Amino acid sequence: MTDFKARPPVGIDAIGASTEGASIYELIRDDIIEGRLKANERLVVSDLAQRHGTSTNPVREALQLLRGEGFVIFAPNRGARVRPIDQDFVRDIYEIGVLIEPALTRWFVSMATHDDIIELERIQRLIEENNFADQLRHSELDTAFHTVMYQRHYNRHAAELWWKHREVLRAVSRRFNFTLSRRAQVLRDHRELIELIKAGEAEKAAELVGRHVEGSGRHILEQMRASNAARAG
Amino acid sequence: MTDFKARPPVGIDAIGASTEGASIYELIRDDIIEGRLKANERLVVSDLAQRHGTSTNPVREALQLLRGEGFVIFAPNRGARVRPIDQDFVRDIYEIGVLIEPALTRWFVSMATHDDIIELERIQRLIEENNFADQLRHSELDTAFHTVMYQRHYNRHAAELWWKHREVLRAVSRRFNFTLSRRAQVLRDHRELIELIKAGEAEKAAELVGRHVEGSGRHILEQMRASNAARAG
DNA sequence: CCGCATCAGATCATACATTGTTTGACGAAA
DNA sequence: TTTCGTCAAACAATGTATGATCTGATGCGG
């Protein structure tokens, strides 16, 4: 069986170099996305260097890279801080997804091959088998599902943007559980989506994906809100 | 009179630090966007350091930042290259604009104040006075026009994305002249847009902006094509 | 065509200089 | 006593310099 790793799918590589094991960049980035580094936390170069057993030089470069990607904020002469991945951030991201993914979908429907359908159905079967038992696995399968649809899109920029956003949302949602209603909705959406793709209904598929992404975003936001309320209360 | 500088408008600052004169980052970035550094050209760290009279460290950091922003591509152990700002790149960018700007506009229409209208009309007057005589000035005014609409949007991420793309398109289009028909269209669009905003017609305004951006993108692409054909022919 | 020496340049490690920020002690004023 | 401004020391960002290592590219002889 294919493994669904959490890495840029073929043809999607925003940076231009990934390869090697765990670069400083990836380590810091994951720490941010996963929440191990807290919002607005100061990123002191020498500390990071020591913690990861490197010199300061690679750390400084990694931070600049993260700055360019928007995960880190710099203040002149005051160094870097973790960009808060808060509700606003998540909302911003998923709203952009609502705008972009339907367009990606529309194109995919017009280009989908028989093999694509087979693949989507295969993944969907795995999703249903797993049935959210292993949430991490669900997340990977779900990502794989959408990747099949977007990875060949001619607009590389849009596809990369989608992937970047996807990674953030995935990491955030990993902290939460799917509600029962959301589970049902996800399965329904996917099944309906496959049918629409088969039927070549590009416009309807696009609309459905828009609603799907919207629902997914709202779901995560609700969870964040609930979690924050619980912490505060 | 206010000056319309080509810098992030209030509240739009993708990076987190701008300030000082011309950082290495800005110099290299402009060289790329303006085409002084050619597509796929190798960016040798030591050369750049020497050319700009710095050590290698700041250069490497600038390159990483540019990598994060997508202007530079890294190959492991082979260093950096200029990401080609070619027709595909421009198309990708403006297509995303077609998706995002209408959404930004829709919100603006629902939030526009009387002062906003005044400001838009003032800028539009300046645009018409200038009437494309000074293209650079037109570009700045046009950017200012749209900035008024987008700068207060709650989705900072989307606004930053717009600004980043805008800068690229501006730089590319600076190489070309507006065709007469495009000039007329731009003026028409702006005038109609102001009317729609006044009337609170969010949906129609959004559609118009979509067409406006689409037209602008196509216009640039046509110019690039023509220019390439001329060079090849 | 293949294998190998050679070379340019990336990447990383140190060490250090300079400069701006932060902090907390100290003392004057209210 | 409390409040506030000043100031120095600690801290850390930023830039410079230099050397070690390793990779990929190039050109040559087999």
Q: Can you describe this structure in just a few lines?
A:
The structure is a homodimer of 233-residue chains. Helices cover 67% and strands 4% of the residues of chain A.
Fold and architecture overview:
- The structure is a homodimer.
- With about 230 residues, chain A is mainly α.
- Chain A is about 65% helix and about 5% strand.
- Chain A is built from 9 helices and 3 strands, in the order αβααββαααααα.
- The first copy, chain A, has helices at about 25-35, 45-50, 55-70, 85-110, 115-130, 135-150, 155-175, 180-200, 200-230, and strands at about 40-45, 70-75, 80.
- Chain A has a 3-stranded antiparallel sheet.
- In chain A, a hairpin with a 3-residue loop joins β2 and β3 (about 80).
- In chain A, α5 runs antiparallel to α6 (about 135-150) and α8 (about 180-200) packs antiparallel against α9 (about 200-230).
- In chain A, about 35% of the residues are buried.
- The interface of A and B includes residues 103 and 155 of A.
